[in-house]
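This part of the workshop introduces the protein records we will be handling. A record pairs a protein's sequence with a compact description of its fold. Comparing a sequence with its tokens is the quickest way to learn the format. The record below serves as our worked example for the rest of this section:
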Amino acid sequence: RQLLPLIPVALRSRLSSGNGDEIIPMRDLFTSPAVSFAYERGWRQNFIAAGFPGPDKEAELAMEFFGNKDDSTVLVDMSCATGLFTRRFAQTNKYNRVLGCDYSDSMLNEARRRINAQPDLDDNLELIRLDVGNIPMQNNTIDYLHAGAAMHCWPELDRAASEIYRVLKPNGGKYFATTFLAEYFRILQRSDGAQASSGPSKQAFQYFSSTQSLKDLMVRGGFDADKVSVEVLGSACVVIRAEK
């Protein structure tokens, strides 16, 4: 079982391992310059089918949840990819520092190119290569952390959830994320001609069978259950809000 239904048709031949059937794993997939190039040129737009509200609305929802603080604020855009949300957060000038973080050098290169093309972006924006399972930041230092359509790509979810909790400030540090329910991948596979019985490949991406599984993940990471909410938009877009 592979990742074919998730990859735009035009890119499949470029990402195939050579035998026509196997596709590189999700984490490695996003290190490809072809994917980095395509991410804001059609790839991300496909997410609307799952119920994603679009980048402008998602950024608005995140900032509404984060609210406003009078003191110095630091916002991390985790798995920022091409800086789709990083740029939107920075443009508001609401935050003293905006850190766009990603595992992929290729994505960060594309993000840097797009940021350099926008002269109105403030100097408070930085790009950092890191692994969400091992965040090189001190405890209790981050006000807000956003992860847009990213968690299903993270190979070690429990470590990531714990790291996010660790770096957020106590008494008000907030996490906002979107991801997919597994049903969306099943629908894609069926529409792509795959057998209906073949579920999502856990080797390729994370399989979130329910909203409760995502809430449980955040609680295992350290968040109080009563400070975690999980909402479904459309058929399979999940919105997670958690406060430390």
